[in-house]
Amino acid sequence: MIGVAVVGCGYWGPNVIRNFSALEDCALRGICELDARRLEPLKRRYPAVRATSDYDELLGDPDVDAVAICTPTASHFPLASAALSAGKHVFVEKPLTDSVDTAEQLVELAETSERILQVDHIFVYSGAVQKIRSVIDEGKIGDLLYVDCVRVNLGLFQSDLNVVWDLAAHDVSIISYLVNQIPEWISAIGSAHYGPLESQAYVTIKYRDPLLAHVHVNWLAPVKLRSTLIGGSKQMIVYNDLEPSEKIRIYDKGVTLLGDRHSRERALVDYRTGDMFAPHIERTEPLEQACRTFLAAIKTRTPPLTDGRAGLAVVRILDAAQRSMRKSGERIYLEPTR
Can you give the C-alpha Rg of the chain in angstroms? Predict the structure, then answer.
């Protein structure tokens, strides 16, 4: 039985508490929150669980094997580093941290202390993204040509993060998992409509030719959209996370070059049109899968899908996008990883 304590009971924390408390091989040992108004209803719902505002008290509890951090991003590094230093495994809400330097420090600390560090990149654990990854790995769509993501809605405005660090973190984690490559460069432009933080942004991620990824995020859209287009040389995929039944549609459509493909003057383009297929997708809750993966990683001491290094890769891209926006879309070439 793995003892887990959850820190932070705002928007996401109660969902994490619910999932860990329901897993058979997990014991919810503690809930930590500074705001008493948030803590009180959870104390009534989980009367047998220690509820406290003292984080050090939880870290000193030998029955707490792991800590789930669901607090604002700026607090991730100090809370996670304290937990790892205390010998606890760490499950942390996305993004891992708010800078490349602190993300690298957490990864190094987790590895030297031999503790599991998992980032809650929730969509990676969804049945839809897992199915897309299996289709790509099987080679059914051919060579990857592009990934185009749209994630827009009206709100929620964040006080500590711009729309890239908030919304684009989801799509970057999905792209990084599906593509499994290190980008060559990042370019981004954004605009701050209310206050100092960007509320709309367009992020371009360039991989090895011909693969290109693009992310559009916006807090000021009148409708909610969660769509991803994935183009392959053989097939194309449409992933609509808001679709209740057919989240993934695979189209047997594409372009065929006839004649001399190396000569623009002699090459002829033909369009291939085929059937559409909507594969079956497991309907388990992604957060439940993420929590199960974390517990399994602790037991087996094997890296989870979204381990610290995966979280660091996402932070590198977000940081590069931030720097590019400050320079009006200038390309930011990623430095070699350590």
Answer: 21
User: What pLDDT is recorded for position 283?
Assistant: 85
| Type of residue numbered 193 | H
Can you point out the beta strands (E) in the chain? 2-7, 26-32, 50-52, 66-69, 89-93, 117-120, 144-154, 185-191, 200-206, 212-218, 220-232, 236-240, 248-251, 254-258, 268-272, 276-277, 332-333
Can you give the pLDDT at residue 282? 85
- 33 close to 6: Cβ distance less than 8 angstroms: no
| Cβ neighbours for 101, distance < 8 A, ≥ 6 positions apart | none
Handedness of CA 148, 164, 336, 96 (dihedral sign): negative
Lookup: tokens for 109: 């600390």
Q: What is the pLDDT of residues 27-71, one digit of tens each?
A: 999 999 999 889 989 989 999 999 999 999 999 999 999 999 999
The position carrying tokens 């820190």 is 7
List for the chain the helix, strand, coil content (%; round to 5).
35, 30, 35
The continuous run of DSSP H or E covering 243 comes out as none
pLDDT of residue 335: 78
Concatenate the DSSP letters of all residues of 251-274 into one string. Answer: E--EEEEES-TT-TTT-EEEEE--
Phi, psi of 10 (to 5 degrees): -85, -120
pTM comes to 0.93
Using DSSP bridges, classify how beta strands 220-232 and 236-240 pair: parallel, antiparallel or unpaired.
antiparallel
Strand ranges across the sheet with 185-191: 276-277, 248-251, 236-240, 220-232, 144-154, 212-218, 200-206, 185-191, 332-333
Q: 241-256 burial by CB neighbour count: b if 16+ within 10 A, else e?
A: beeeeebbebbeebee
Determine the pLDDT at residue 245.
Answer: 87
Residues of the chain with pLDDT under 70: 255-270, 272, 336-338
**What are the phi and psi torsion angles at 235 (to 5°)?**
-140, 170
> 91 is written with which tokens?
């499950």
pLDDT at 265: 56
